[in-house]
Design brief:
The complex is a heterodimer of chains A (250) and B (389). Chain A starts with a strand and ends in an 8-residue tail after the last helix. Chain A has 250 residues and is α/β, with parallel strands linked by helices. The longest helix of chain A has 19 residues. In chain A, helix 3 packs parallel to helix 6 and helix 6 packs parallel to helix 7. Chain A has 8 helices and 12 strands. Helix content of chain A is 34%, strand content 29%. Chain B starts with 31 loop residues before the first helix and ends with a helix. Chain B has 389 residues and is of the alpha/beta class. In chain B, the strands form 2 sheets. In chain B, strands 2-1-5-7-9-11-14-16-18-20 form a 10-stranded mixed β-sheet. In chain B, strands 3, 4, 6, 8, 10, 12, 13, 15, 17 and 19 form a 10-stranded mixed β-sheet that branches. In chain B, helix 4 crosses helix 5. Classes of the chains: A alpha/beta (250), B alpha/beta (389). At the A-B interface, helix 2, strand 7, helix 3 and strand 8 of A face helix 4 and helix 5 of B.
Chain lengths: 250, 389
């Protein structure tokens, strides 16, 4: 699904990603851990092709296509979707309008039916995009848009931060459905990369692999539960050190 | 601003703009596009009546419902001597040279009146249409909603594509009696060669409601206006909403003023202004609190789409009592790059994203309209926006 090779990225003249490699296969869900400032969100924005994120070295392949030189719209239309951590408020643009347009593109459907899956009301659909949304509403609105978009590859930037436990469970359940986690591994087609700081979401969605980012590269990879437990006990740096500073295949 | 002194009133003709009456708007099929753009339905569907003035002639004035009167102002002044008590009472004849011109040489205008207790929820459509080049239109409108009546007016000012230059002077006096309501949705569909000077004032009595929705999306050479609502009655309400898309070399100086004179009166002034190309817009708002328990809010948002356009926002609050709540917010900026990127990350192209943001910015919820009229106004707005963008 996604193959990143030797990726180095500058933002505002400063190197943020440094020789990063990542491979996510079809049907796989990966988790990305890392301290603040380790480059997790930068990786997302670079995969999306946002112009401030300048690729100075390396390539990004998506579904077998080299997307390194494509613009954001082109990349997204190849089948990727993202749930932002801090989406901008857009006055006057209704959530219903966006969901409706996304549904029209992905084959149709009723915005309200999707909204109800996330416990969002009809009135909520009439609100301006992200304007005055609570933490939980932001996340559910982002997931709602992804449901409507129905991409092949999902990126979730901290879907569980600033959300109460009840909503984390709801979000986790819907994510699990979106990612076909109920199917047998060989039948799963949807892939995902999930950034989580606190790891709550992992209680509700089973991931296949986890990575720890440190100083702009993937410093350590392994089984999600083990990596998460290491981080909880000893912190990011210690976890990476135990991995021998490289891949911790277990 | 094209200076007031630069407009030579006499250089625009007061003669030669006469037309025969018509029996239906379909007789103006050659101008259908212009009329539609100003919100006029030629079939008069879902309308309570129509008024159409073409150049210097009232060609159609009819009410389709009981309790509603529509006619030319001069006819009405002849028929009703009492109307003198409403004529030039809110706007002094000698306020400026444009009011003087209309007072001395009026060319009709409309008189619209809802009778006492008449709740007319279907809108009345009125249109001031310029089809002849280089003329001036000096209209005087008087609108009265008698006690406990309700009146919705959709009014379009429009100009034939054949007109390269014209002057429109429009005096409008609104009277909202106790418990009455007027909504006035005005679409200006001028052209780059037209100078426009509306002079409007509104008197709102006890418990009365006045709502103005103003939309201008097409270029205009110069437009200057500062309609004022006097909330005289206890608990009276006035709202001015304006949506402005100023393009080309449009020169727009517009404001709205609410003077709160009645205890517990309240009101809002809301504007959304987009300036692009070489347009210049001055968006003013003025809330004057002269009574107790008054509440007023002013909100002006501007969006700049070019480096050669100008938006000046001038909000003013004047409190003359202690027990008063007046506030304002004003913001002018460009489209945030972050918002465009966000929508592109949903798969929209950059142009689609910008279009959505602009549409969203301008899409004020038009308050106080009956559902059908609100829907239609929205459709008209979308149509116009599509055309200008």
């Amino acid at each position: 699904m996604l193959e990143i090779q030797n990726l180095s990225v500058d933002v505002g003249g400063k190197r943020i990603l440094n020789d990063l490699n990542l491979h996510i296969g079809d049907g796989e869900v990966h988790v990305l851990f890392g301290a603040n400032g380790s480059g997790k969100t930068t990786l997302f924005m670079t995969i999306l092709g946002f112009p401030d994120y300048r690729v100075v070295e390396g390539r990004i392949y998506f579904r077998g296509i080299d997307i390194t030189g494509l613009d954001t719209t082109e990349r997204v239309r190849l089948g990727m979707g993202v749930s932002f951590q801090h989406p901008p408020e857009i006055r006057g643009v209704k959530l219903r309008e966006v969901v409706g347009l996304l549904l029209a593109r992905s084959g149709g459907g009723d915005p309200l039916l999707l909204a109800r899956r996330l416990n969002l009301s009809e009135e909520f659909l009439e609100r301006d995009l992200n304007l005055g949304f609570s933490g939980g509403e932001v996340k559910r609105s982002e997931i709602l848009q992804l449901l409507a978009q129905n991409p092949e590859f999902y990126m979730f930037d901290e879907p569980d931060s600033g959300v109460d436990l009840e909503n984390v469970e709801l979000i986790g359940r819907v994510m699990s459905e979106m990612l076909e986690r109920d199917k047998r591994p060989s039948e799963r087609r949807k892939s995902a990369l999930i950034i989580t700081h606190i790891g709550y979401i992992l209680n509700y969605i089973k991931a296949d692999r986890a990575h720890v980012m440190l100083d702009g590269r993937i410093a350590c990879s392994g089984m999600p539960d083990e990596i998460y437990n290491h981080i909880l006990k000893e912190g990011f740096e210690e976890c990476v050190r135990r991995c021998g500073g490289d891949r911790c295949e277990r | 601003m094209r200076g007031e002194e630069e407009i030579e009133i006499e250089s625009f003709d007061l003669e030669g703009g006469e037309h025969d009456p018509i029996s239906g708007l379909d007789e103006l099929s050659e101008y259908e596009k212009e009329l539609l753009a100003a919100g006029i339905d030629p079939q008069e569907r879902e309308r309570s009546g129509s008024f159409l003035q073409q150049d210097h002639s009232v060609v159609l004035a009819r009410s389709l419902l009981p309790g509603l009167e529509v006619m030319g102002t001069d006819d009405a002044l002849r028929r009703y001597p009492w109307l003198e008590d409403y004529s030039w009472k809110l706007i002094p004849r000698d306020r400026d040279r444009f009011t003087r011109e209309v007072a001395e040489r009026p060319t009709h205008g409309y008189f619209i009146r809802a009778e006492r207790d008449a709740r007319i929820t279907l809108p009345l459509q009125s249109c001031l249409f310029i089809s002849k080049d280089k003329i001036r239109q000096n209209v005087h409108n008087i609108i009265i909603a008698e006690e406990n009546s309700e009146l919705h007016i959709i009014t379009g000012c429009t100009v034939s594509h054949r007109v390269s230059s014209a002057l429109h002077l429009g005096i409008s006096e609104f009277y909202v009696k106790p418990g009455a309501k007027i909504t006035f949705t005005m679409v200006h569909n001028w052209a780059g060669g037209v100078d426009v000077r509306p002079r409007s004032a509104v008197l709102v009595e006890d418990g009365g409601v006045f709502i103005s929705n103003y939309i201008v999306m097409t270029p205009v050479r110069s437009l200057q206006m500062y309609p004022t609502a006097y909330c005289l009655g206890r608990g009276s309400v006035a709202t001015f909403q304006s949506i402005v898309y100023a393009s080309s070399h449009s020169n727009i100086d517009m404001g709205s003023r609410i003077v709160f004179k009645g205890r517990g009166s309240r009101g809002d002034i809301v504007s959304r202004v987009i300036a692009t190309d070489h347009a210049k817009v001055i968006a003013k708002g003025d809330l004057v609190g002269e009574a107790d328990d008054v509440k007023g809010h002013l909100e002006c948002r501007g969006l700049m789409l070019s480096d050669t356009s100008v938006i000046e926002s001038v909000p003013e609050l004047k409190a003359r009592r202690r027990n008063i709540d007046l506030s304002h917010e004003a913001a002018v900026g460009k489209i945030a790059e972050e918002e465009i990127r966000y929508l592109m990350a949903r798969g929209f192209s950059e142009d689609e994203a910008v279009g959505m943001i602009i549409r969203g910015f301008l899409s004020l919820e038009i308050k106080g309209l009956p559902e059908g009229l609100a829907r239609e106004t929205k459709r008209m707005f979308d149509m116009t926006l599509e055309k200008v963008m």
